[in-house]
User: Which sequence fits this backbone?
């Protein structure tokens, strides 16, 4: 299964290398965009898009552009998340954050441009117009005020004050799970999936996204800056309430396992071959970075 994950990831890496290479006067902006886009990472979202496309009867390459678009949008969110007005982080994926290298205004513009490029990439893909339009709508809903941006707003508002379990659930669902869900749904869309498959993919990805974020919070407490590639303990430093601070590490491990099981159980009624997606859920629940 790891070999299949690596194949999906390598497809995404190769395609991402092709973007933003033009010798234009604004080349510093393009360099800034490529700096963060090509900084590595697990490429979970493109992998999900391609895996769900194949699970729905399509080919991985059918969803490759959609996967790259999601990664562009995710990268823009990381650039903005690291800014002084947000988390003010100096390290991301083991490298200086974008604004530390290129300056704050270029980092802001790089994020803006990556968001625009994400939708351009979806709408310029070779798939038919209905699939492109559906995928763009899925991505827009997941990225804006009703998804990732809404979650970031709640996250920032929650700094320095106690939060309830339901408030933290809202932050995790909007900020993290919605974009992961979009990746799965866009992969299904690329293959022309049936409604039952779309619904199952959405349930899988929603649970996976919650498990992913809780695991992330655990790693922030238990990991090191060297293994994580970003400052460990930043949640505590920024006075952010998380499931870990509220419920403790052991309960969080139980929640990761529970949501991982929920994700895997959602697949079986709609998909005939779920081996890789089940493996992926387990792999992500035990990751160390």
Assistant:
């Amino acid at each position: 299964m790891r070999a299949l994950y690596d194949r999906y990831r390598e497809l995404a890496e190769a395609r991402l290398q092709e973007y933003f290479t033009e010798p234009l006067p604004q080349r510093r902006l393009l360099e800034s965009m490529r700096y963060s886009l090509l900084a590595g990472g697990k490429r979970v979202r493109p992998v999900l898009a391609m895996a769900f496309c194949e699970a729905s009867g399509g080919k991985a390459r059918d969803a490759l552009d959609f996967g790259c678009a999601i990664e562009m949008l995710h990268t823009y969110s990381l650039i903005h998340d690291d800014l002084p007005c947000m988390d003010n982080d100096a390290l991301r994926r083991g490298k200086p954050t974008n604004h530390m290298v290129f300056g704050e205004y270029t980092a802001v513009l790089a994020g803006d441009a990556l968001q625009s490029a994400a939708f351009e990439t979806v709408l310029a893909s070779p798939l038919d117009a209905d699939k492109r339009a559906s995928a763009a709508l899925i991505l827009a809903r997941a990225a804006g005020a009703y998804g990732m941006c809404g979650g970031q707003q709640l996250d920032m508002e929650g700094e320095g004050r106690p939060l309830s379990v339901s408030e933290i659930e809202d932050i995790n669902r909007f900020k993290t799970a919605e974009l992961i869900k979009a990746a799965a749904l866009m992969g299904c869309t690329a293959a022309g999936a049936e409604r039952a498959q779309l619904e199952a993919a959405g349930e899988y990805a929603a649970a996976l996204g919650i498990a992913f974020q809780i695991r992330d919070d655990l790693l922030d407490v238990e990991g090191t800056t060297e293994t994580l590639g970003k400052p460990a303990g930043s949640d505590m430093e920024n006075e952010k309430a998380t499931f870990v601070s509220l419920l403790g590490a052991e309960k969080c491990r139980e929640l990761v396992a529970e949501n991982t099981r929920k994700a895997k159980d959602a697949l079986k009624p709609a998909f005939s071959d779920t081996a890789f997606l089940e493996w992926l859920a387990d792999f992500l629940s035990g990751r160390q970075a």
Observations:
- Residues 98 and 107 are 6 Å apart (CA to CA).
- The longest strand covers residues 91-92.
- The radius of gyration is 18 Å.
